[in-house]
Amino acid sequence: MAVACVCFVGKQNEPLSLQVFNLEDELSMQFAAYAALDIVEEKIQAQQSPSSSYGPPAGAAASVPPSGDCYLGVICPALCLGRDYLFYAYVGTTGIKILVAIEQRSQYHQHDVRNLFRRLHRLYADSICNPFLLDTIETPKFLGELDAIVDFYGKKFAGRDH
Prior knowledge:
This protein is an alpha+beta fold. The chain has one domain (3-158): 2-Layer Sandwich (Beta-Lactamase), CATH 3.30.450.70. Helices cover 38% and strands 24% of the residues. The chain has a 5-stranded antiparallel beta sheet with strand order 2-1-5-4-3, with helices on both faces. InterPro entries: Longin-like_dom_sf, Sedlin, TRAPPC2L. This is Trafficking protein particle complex subunit 2-like protein. One of its GO terms (biological process) is endoplasmic reticulum to Golgi vesicle-mediated transport. It comes from Besnoitia besnoiti (Apicomplexan protozoan).
């Protein structure tokens, strides 16, 4: 399966949901996801203070264009159980962060990854707009729809393997 992990993180970096798909060593993928989150935070800080020594020089383009595109693209590679993965990130305007790990050997287009993030963000928005939501977004409906989205894109990405 091309999509190995999907992680939803709140504005204060609180984990909302972390799902690992078809991987024997779930703990190493969780560790890699939280390490990728640190890089996302660095990118966000660089956008907020572009003149800092860690961010791009003044006048340089920010990671997220002012057009409202929340897609950050590839954040970092990860190695779990001898497989190479790339972590992609998306940061919503409300501060929600979505991380996705995709097998590096998969052949896919950036617009497919963007569409994956749009669907995941819509799933999150639909979940938190539920007036009966209690403490967690991980309701059976949320998890079922997440599995369906990951299955769809996993097949789509795997179908392009060489």
